[in-house]
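Your task
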Amino acid sequence: MLQPKKTRYRKCQKGRNRGIAQRGYSLTFGEYGLKSLEHGVITARQIEAIRVCMNRIIGKDGKLCIRIFPDKPITRKPAGVRMGSGKGNVEFYGAVIKPGTILVELGQISEDIAKLAIERASDKLPIKVKMMTHKDYVNLR
């Protein structure tokens, strides 16, 4: 699974996830993309699940590019532990997603295969997403 090799700090603050994507909102590497429509955190396990799912559908001739990386440590305290006594241990890493972010790009495949792959991958994600093509980027963001 994806996680950073080295971080400056083991744990980080929660922060706020507001606004729309200021970068990573346009297709760069492929003809089709999976675009987020809402805020959320996607875990490394979910990214791996969509990677495996899409690779099964597109096969060897298709090209898959994952545009997000889980670099935020998410901490949890064990069940049955009382309040206080510090922050919990790092359980997993997640990628913070804003609306408009391109999560995955697909290339060198037909549109119906891309549509099927994106449809299957969207079932594995906790946020609403939609399929984007190069035709959608006339004057839109």
Notes: Strands lie at 32-36, 40-43, 63-66, 72-76, 89-97, 102-107, 129-133. The radius of gyration is 17 Å. Residues 44-58 form the longest helix (15 residues).
